[in-house]
Specification:
Blueprint: H1 6-11, E1 19-22, E2 26-30, E3 38-44, H2 59-75, E4 84-86, E5 102-106
Antiparallel strand pairs: 1-2, 2-3, 3-5, 4-5
């Protein structure tokens, strides 16, 4: 069984994506199901399945994803107005592709809580 994800296929150019940023460590592209006028996914080129799989050696790489978000926000002119960066973890956290990724959302006033339509789970 292969652990190849759709993001691996985008990195390897096996499938197309609307790429807005790329460097040696990361790639950013438009989400195909946008939740805001600007909805980008920022992914590391190194495959890491979930936040739970991030190792100490990945600190700089994960931090790099956030600096890419800042750079994109400045370049595209929405840094001053504001934006949201979200990383989901596992099924209950809303993760659907098991390759860590930041959701960068902007272009409108984003309400709180971010996913107000979801029923909270009881935690005892």
């Amino acid at each position: 069984m292969s652990n190849t994800t759709i993001f691996d296929k985008i990195i390897n150019r096996e499938i197309n994506a609307d790429i807005v940023y790329e460097d040696d460590l990361s790639l950013a592209f438009k989400d195909i199901n946008p939740q805001a006028p600007v909805h980008l996914l920022i992914i590391p080129k190194k495959p890491i399945a979930t936040i739970n799989d991030i190792e100490e050696d990945d600190r700089e790489l994960v931090g790099h994803l956030f600096t890419v978000a800042r750079k994109i926000a400045i370049q595209h002119g929405f840094a001053k107005d504001g934006y949201r960066v979200v990383m989901n973890c596992n099924e209950d956290g809303g993760q659907s592709v098991y390759h860590i990724h930041l959701h960068l959302l902007a272009g409108k006033t984003l309400g709180w809580p971010p996913y107000a339509n979801h029923e909270p789970k009881r935690v005892d």
